[in-house]
Amino acid sequence: MADLDLCFTPATELARRIRAGELSPVRVIENSLARIAEVNPKLNCFCFVYADEAMAKAREAERAVENGAALGPLHGVPIAIKDLTPTKGKRTTLGSYAYEHWVPDEDAPIVEALLEAGAILVGKTTTPEFAYSSFTESPLWGITRNPWNTACTPGGSSGGSGAAVASGAVALAEGSDMGGSVRIPAALCGIVGLKPSFGRIPFTILPSQFDQLSHFGPLARTVSDAALFLKVTQGPDERDIQSLKPALDVTIPIPSDVRGRRLALSVDLGRYRIDPEVAENTKAAVAALAGEGAIVEEVELDWGLELNEAWTAHWAVYLAAFFGHVLPKYRAKMDPNVVTLIETGLAMSAVDFKRLEFIRTEQWKQLSPILQVYEALLCPTMALPAPPVGGNDAAYYRNDENGRYVGLDMTAVFNFVSPCPALSVPSGWTSTGLPTGLQIVGRRFDDLGVLRIGAALERARPWAQRRPPI
C-alpha cells in the first residue's frame, strides 16, 4: 500500500528533502506508482502509466544525488501530463479516436521545462475529447471521477490531472485552460489551479500561434507548489511569439502578506444563480482574507448571458478550426456534443466571429475600472459543487425563470480577458463533503499578486491536510 503521508507531501517539500538526501527519489516514485494502482481503477484519471521508465528515471535521480550532481528544482518529483499535451515518443490521444495512435516527435515546451527541472513523468491524465467539456468523459477513455465522491465529476477538461493531484497520486500535474479547464477541476477537487497571464507559459501545441484563449497551468495542492511550477515553466520562449518577457522573479514560498491590499468581491458576477453553500464558503473565505488585513469591498458587474454565449460561439469556432478536419472520417466515433460544436463553428461567418470582440470589449470596459481601484476581483470559481458524472455542459447554460444565469463554471468569461491571471483555491467544503473554490482574478500580468492572495488564504485557512476518502 502507498504511504499516504508521502502521497500528500507538497512538491516543494519533496524536492527539498530529495536534494538534502533525506528522501530517495526511488521511494517517492515507487509510492506514486503504488497510489496510482490504488486509485486509478476507481477514478480513471490516468490513461497511460509509465512505471518502468519512471523507475529507471528515479534510479538515475538517486545516483545524481549521491554523486553531488547539480539538481533541478523538481528533482525526483512525480508529475503527470494531460493527454492533450504532446510528449515525445508517447501516445497523445486528445481523448479522441481520431488521435488514438498519434505519437508526437517532440515534447511541448512545457514538458521540456518540467523534465529539465528534474521532474519524473509517471503518466498522462484523461481529458474529454479535444478538451471541450467541464466533464472529463471521452469516447476513448470513458468517465473520470472525483476522489471526494466517485459519483461526481472532477470537472474538466483537466479533470484527470485534478483527480490525480487531489488523490495523492502525483504532487503536480499539468493542465490546459481555454475556458476554465485548470480552475474547474481545481475547485471541484479541492486543490489549487492557476490560469496564468496569457503568454506567461509558452503555448505551442495548436496549429495557430495567435490564439488568445489558451493557457497552460498547474494543478497542485499548495500555492507554493503552483508557484514553483510557474517558475519552472514560464517563458519567454521564441517558439511562442506571444510568450511574455521578461520572466517573473518568483519567490518560494510565495509571500502571503495582504495587509492594506484592496480587493473587490462579486459573489454572483451580477447574474449567476449561486448554490447557497458555494456562496457561504465564498463569504467565509473572503472574511478570512479580511482577517489577514485585506480591505474587501463588494462591487457591481452587469455581465449578461450574451458574454457566455459569445464564449461558446468562440469555442465552437476554435474546435471547428483546429479539429473540424477529422469530422468526415471519425464522426461516428466522436462525442456528439463535440460534433455539434464543430458544426456550429463551421457555420459561423468570419464577420460574426469578429464581432464577438465587441462583446469582449464591453466586458473589459466594466472590469478595467474595477481592477484600477482593486488589486483583484474575488468570486466563486464554480456556481455549484461537483455535479454527477454523465452530465452535459449545455444543460447548465441558460437563464432561469427569474432571469438568473444557471451556469456551472464562472471561469470562461475570464479567458476573454486572458492577460488577467486567475487562481482557484479551496474556499471550503459542503455539508456532503464536496469542495468549493474561490477564484482570484488579478490585474493584467500580475501573476504574483494572485498567488500572494491565495497564499494569504492558505495561511488563514489551511486546506492541504484534508484528504479525500478514496
How does this model look, in words?
This protein is α/β, with parallel strands linked by helices and 470 residues long. It has two domains: 4-233, Amidase signature (AS) domain (Amidase signature (AS) enzymes, Alpha-Beta Complex), CATH 3.90.1300.10; 263-460, Alpha-Beta Complex (Amidase signature (AS) enzymes), CATH 3.90.1300.10. 36% of the residues lie in helices and 14% in strands. The chain is built from 14 helices and 15 strands. It has helices spanning 4-7, 11-19, 25-43, 51-66, 109-116, 159-166, 183-189, 223-233, 276-291, 305-323, 327-330, 336-347, 350-373, 447-460, and strands at residues 46-49, 78-82, 120-125, 137-138, 142-143, 172-177, 192-195, 215-220, 262-265, 295-298, 376-380, 398-399, 405-406, 422-429, 435-442. The strands form three sheets. Strands 1-3-2-6-8-7-14-15-11-9-10 form an eleven-stranded mixed β-sheet, with helices on both faces. Helix 3 (25-43) runs antiparallel to helix 4 (51-66) and helix 8 (223-233) runs antiparallel to helix 14 (447-460). The protein is globular. It starts with a helix and ends in a 10-residue tail after the last helix. The model has no long low-confidence stretch (mean pLDDT 97).
